Amino acid sequence: MSRDxxxxxxxxxxRLKKEYPDAHCALQHSNAFELLIxxxxxxxxxxxxxxxxxxxxxxxxxxxxxxxxxxxxxxxRDIRSTGFFRNKAKNIQAAxxxxxxxxxxxxxxxxDEILTLGGVARKTANxxxxxxxxxxxxxxxxxxxxxxxxxxxxxxETTPEKIERDLQLLVxxxxxxxxxxxxxxxxxxxxxxxxxxxxxxVLADICPSYKIxxxxxxxx
Length: 220
Prior knowledge:
The chain has 220 residues and is mostly helical. The protein is 59% helix and 0% strand.
């Protein structure tokens, strides 16, 4: 990893830390199991919508056994508004079945183990391990982290796995858990996908994409 990228990452971290001292996981949960379910539901869905659904869902389903015992079509109805509800219901029930069969109903604490659960890829595993257990197993890469990492010149990669590898080299391990939250907060409030608020951005003077967006607007 180049020295320039390391300096860029350090400055991004410094500024975002100051800008978003309240950054945190937006998915509402009271334990690791709830966070697992909420994160599975968050695929292709906003955290706001997931929180609305889980407010009721977690009163009805309190354990892996509850999710396994219900008919899949009933679970599908309960999570329908999160989108892709059939696949999500299938994955949730598969994950819960394995939790009961292999892990005594408890969420495992290692990346290799948690990746064996249905519907769980590295993003979900990193969210749960980092936010529920404080285990820095990697860097969460969602759409916001991907977009901002590319715009800020921290990576030229396009797949989550490769972006994560680049970020692990640039971001100190002690900040692997909080760094995505800073990026997500900034992505939602300022560096939005379609219309980034470049003139309001605390990173504007060090962002390689700033001139591209500003010049593009002037040509219209």
